[in-house]
Amino acid sequence: MTDVPDFGTALTLTYVWIKAAHIIFVIFWIAGLFMLPRFYVYHQEATPGSVEEQRWIEREKKLRTIIINPAMALVWILGLALAYITGAWQEGWFHAKFAMVVLLSGYHGYMVGYGRKLAKGERPASGKALRVMNEVPGIATAIIVILVIVRPF
User: Fold this and answer.
1) Which of 9, 35, 56, 99 has CA atoms 20 to 30 A from the CA of 66?
2) E strand or H helix at 11
3) How far from each other are the two terminal CA atoms of the chain, in whole angstroms?
């Protein structure tokens, strides 16, 4: 008897580990996307050129480079691997989920760009608009979870 699993078992074990990692990095990504607009609100309320503003610039950069950007990359890599393993490309719910993840990635890119503008001293959106933007990740996450769990189509 051998301790090496057959291909079917190995694929199953690989699948569950990839799925677990995917969910973990989704949590990191979405948590960061919840935090980032809130950071921007506080940043915008800081006096331009102040030490406090500089601290917000540093915090935002760390959040983006240490947590959000790597988490998003891993979500994409692991998610595409899961889609390949499960053959999800043929499922209607997956197409809708994929579209939502593309939109959420676009939101991510917009928020990263907004942070760069803030770091240069620009403040193109109001604090109220940023507070509204803070709701986007939550709404997107709820829709994605429903699509994955309920699979309405």
Assistant:
1) 99
2) helix 7-45
3) 44
Amino acid at 113: G
Residue carrying structure tokens 């699993």: 5
- What tokens appear for 51 in the block? 């030490």
pLDDT tens digit string along 35-81?
999 999 999 999 999 999 999 999 999 999 999 999 999 999 999 99
Instruction: Please state, in angstroms and as integers, the Cα–Cα distance from residue 86 to each residue in 6, 65, 89, 112, 144, following that order.
Output: 18, 31, 8, 32, 17
Cβ-in-10-Å burial (0-12, 13-18, 19+) of 126 comes to: exposed
Tell me the per-residue pLDDT of 81-129, one tens digit each, with 9 for 90 and over: 999 888 999 999 999 999 999 999 999 999 999 999 999 999 999 989 9
**What is the value of pTM for the model shown?**
0.89
